Amino acid sequence: MSKQVHSKKNKILSIDRRETLKTFAAASITTLIPTQLRSSSSSDVIIIGAGLSGLYAATILQDEGYRVRVLEADNRVGGRVLSETGIPGNPETGGTAFGSGYARIIDISNRFNIQLNDLSPVLPYFRQQQLAINGEFISLKDWPDHPSNNLPKEMRMIPPNAFFQQFLGKMNPLKSPDGWMQEENFKYDISVHDWLESQGLNQKAIDLVYNMNISHGYNAKDVSILMLMFVNSFFNSQMSLGFRTSLVAEGGNMMIPEAMANNLNQEVLFNKRVDAIKTSSNKAEVICADGSIFKADHVICSVPFSVLRTINIAPAIEGLQAEAIEELNSQKINMLHLLPKSPFWESDEMSPNMFTDGLSGLVIANRNVANPEQVHSLTVWLRGPIAEQLDLMDRQDAISTVIQSIEQLRPSSKDQLEPLAYHSWYQSPYSKGDWAYWQPGQISKFGQHVGNRHGQIHFCGEHTAVANRGMEGAMESSERVAFEVMGLA
Ligand SMILES: Cc1cc2nc3c(=O)[nH]c(=O)nc-3n(C[C@H](O)[C@H](O)[C@H](O)COP(=O)(O)OP(=O)(O)OC[C@H]3O[C@@H](n4cnc5c(N)ncnc54)[C@H](O)[C@@H]3O)c2cc1C
């Protein structure tokens, strides 16, 4: 294990490999088996970011004998995984649930003895979402003939919150999730709007099935259908492989990054905001906002591009990767957790879950897996333009605005909602949004370049994943960069 010495200038100087080699030279030749030599003299690796991708890359490399040091700007690990452990049921403000086919997440949880809870008992409740349009609740029974339903005749029975995935699923041309990065499919790198229009949907129908309570992008014109084909193909492939349920970690999904961090030989350094990275042909240097400097053979950078564009890289990255860093944006999303003081939904006899076209966004009840009738808390998902509107307000106003919107829609909830936690991911300086969303033309232009190595700097993170989404995508990208560092890719 390498020792580290803190100099007066707060630099960390690694006792270098010459000392390690001297130790080996003094040892008997019989002890110099190749594996020992390789692991003891292997590269130091600095990893920027203690989210899932950074920590998993650190875990793999440490397992291979590398000395790794993780630098984190925030005062906690997890990045976009953030469990509200102070709230009953530990609701998630970030990465919420994962499929039973998320092999890497499941493997690492098993390794660290993290119990995973099967959400099957609560999924039927989750799917019951009260539809509210123009301030009116519409039952599934009334939906096909309702005046707000402007879908083509043969599609009118499908509720808007289920429509898009069903419709796309039937005609998704991708043969496998990674097909979105193959040139033969770049013809689909057009807007969701143009694609839906080519399928016969008019503007009103597009507003209903895509723009209402949007999950990817800001509106149907600024997101590529090819990205949505990837999302759809990923979930469908999980289903067709038989992975039909969702899981969460007991105690909150934060348990997973925390366990990886705790396993590291060198502790994660917090409040280390990296401002600059320099690379030569065989070394790299990282400079933090507090003036500390870290040197290594390799640097792995896991921050989203919305944040990376604020980090100075020398020599500068050029070409398509540079354009990607500047232009690939992240989803705006805010999360509000509420405590229901009473089960107000019992009095109006509707599900507590709501899918709305207003500032109430999407409301989901967090239920007890062992007793699904029991609701611990409500989480309001506020995405795209709703998040943008709320981000213009101060925190308290934003929370009150959402609560008032729910109360107006649903009088039974009046004075029954106590705010417990609120988080804007776009306003978080180290995230600047949630999942990367690809605009029309971006995938074909620079999709294959986002993960390019730049000198001794390697890039990972959910936004560089090719075959998996979300948390599993983040972990997929860690394997790629670990292989790069090991010289295997
Ligand atoms: C509301 C929400 C719901 C989600 N739901 C799901 C879901 O149900 N299923 C799913 O699979 N995924 C979901 N996700 C997505 C998933 O959480 C992310 O894709 C994944 O956690 C991203 O991991 P990452 O390592 O790529 O990035 P991050 O977690 O963002 O890690 C990057 C790290 O870098 C740090 N950092 C940033 N800048 C600097 C700097 N200058 N210096 C040092 N450190 C820095 C950050 O603080 C952070 O810790 C959700 C995300 C959100 C926000």
Kindly describe this structure.
- The chain has 17 helices and 22 strands.
- It has 489 residues and is of the alpha+beta class.
- The protein has three domains: 4-78 and 252-328 and 437-485, FAD/NAD(P)-binding domain; 120-149 and 332-424, Polyamine Oxidase, Chain A, domain 2 (Alpha-Beta Complex); 156-240.
- The strands form six sheets. A seven-stranded mixed β-sheet has the order 8-7-17-18-19-16-20.
- Strand 10 (274-279) and strand 11 form a beta hairpin.
- Helix 3 packs parallel to helix 10 and helix 3 (52-63) packs parallel to helix 17 (470-485).
- The chain is globular and about 65 Å long.
- The two termini are 26 Å apart.
- Bound molecules: flavin-adenine dinucleotide.
- Flavin-adenine dinucleotide binds at residues 48-54, 71-74, 79-81, 94-98, 272-274, 302-304, 307, 311, 333, 335, 425, 430-431, 434-435, 461-462, 469-472, 474.
Summarize the SSE layout with pairings.
Elements: E1 4-6, E2 12-14, H1 17-26, H2 34-40, E3 44-48, H3 52-63, E4 67-71, E5 98-99, H4 103-111, E6 116-118, H5 123-127, E7 130-133, E8 136-138, H6 160-171, H7 192-198, H8 203-211, H9 225-240, E9 246-249, H10 255-262, E10 274-279, E11 284-288, E12 293-296, E13 298-301, H11 305-308, E14 312-314, H12 319-327, E15 329-330, E16 333-340, H13 345-348, E17 354-356, E18 362-367, E19 375-383, H14 385-391, H15 395-409, E20 417-424, E21 436-437, H16 442-446, E22 457-459, H17 470-485
Parallel strand pairs: 3-4, 3-13, 7-17, 10-14, 13-22
Antiparallel strand pairs: 1-2, 5-9, 6-9, 7-8, 10-11, 11-12, 15-21, 16-19, 16-20, 17-18, 18-19
Bound molecules: flavin-adenine dinucleotide (FAD).
